[in-house]
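Lab notes, practical 5.
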Amino acid sequence: MQRMVKHSKSIELRHLRYFVAAAEYGSFRKAGAALGRSQSAISRCIADLEDQIGASLFHRHTWGVSQTYAGQRFLTRARQVIRTVGDGAQDVASAGQAEVGRIRLGIYSSIASGFLAELLARYGRRHSGVRIEVVDGNPAEHVAAIRQLSLDAAFITGTRDWPDCERVLLWSERVFVVLPDHHTLANREEVVWGDLADETFIVSETAPGQEIYDHLVRRLADLSRHPEIQVQYVGRDNLVPLVALGRGLTLVSEAMTVAQFPGVVYRPVLGEILPFSAVWSASNDNPAFRRFLSLAKAMAVKPVTSETGRSAVPS
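Output from the prediction step:
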């Protein structure tokens, strides 16, 4: 028997749950007992639901209830809705607990070893459902992307504060010069800038080539030298083999030195320490990233200082 719609209240999830329980138990009383509700509460809710859809869902009997044809058809849809809502809630809960999701990180250093490599590995083990994307670039590009929330964070050199961004110093690395293995300085355990004053250097056009170029100019200017620096239009992986071929020397951070290339050696530059900071937007509410940032801060140690008391990159 069709029922007239009495009002236009929306159907709530509880209506569907009560309806499914009544259909499964064949009784309002038993459904109420299973759900911790009274029989009258279940009966009122079902009557309300029938008013919303304009059809009777149950035949009422002295021994219980049985579904009408409309009720049988509605049962399938009601179960689908409840299952979909449950799955959606689980997805949201997983994202909120950082079990799934995506993190986009800008880097300006090698991830071959060191703090950043260990951070990525440790987070990956704890949150295997989170996809991590790593993007190369220079600091200005990374910060612009962070402000637009297209990057979650960037790990860049220095201790500079960027407008509209948060920053924390996380770790430091020594600076190494890359030498051909037959170079006269290859026999040294470490070198000083005076040893490098008359050398030719090569840098990549891509990051961090420009920063290395500026750094060389500053340091050798202190010795009243104007260095010869050639720009090569290759990435870091091809820049080091050019050193082996005698095209010039270059600088790398400590994390890069685990990468072995034939014909080259790495030697630390005395007193040169490179600080690395994480930069992110305070508006970023990505829960997977927030967990990542918390882990990074927990792993951070007191930054290393050089013997001269200066960092390799001015703030």
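Observations recorded by the TA: The radius of gyration is 32 Å. The chain has two domains: 13-96, 101-299.
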